[in-house]
Amino acid sequence: MANGSLTCIAKAVLAGVAAVAVQLTAAQAQSAPRIPAIHIIYMGGDDCPPCRAWRREELPKLEATAGFKRIKFTYVVKVIRSAVPPAFFMPSEVRPYKAKLDTANNGITGSPQTAILVDGKVFDYYFGTRSAEELEKMIAAIEDGTPYPFQQCVRRESQGRCEVRG
Question: In this structure, are residues 2 and 55 in contact, taking their beta carbons and an 8 Å threshold?
Answer without folding.
Answer: no
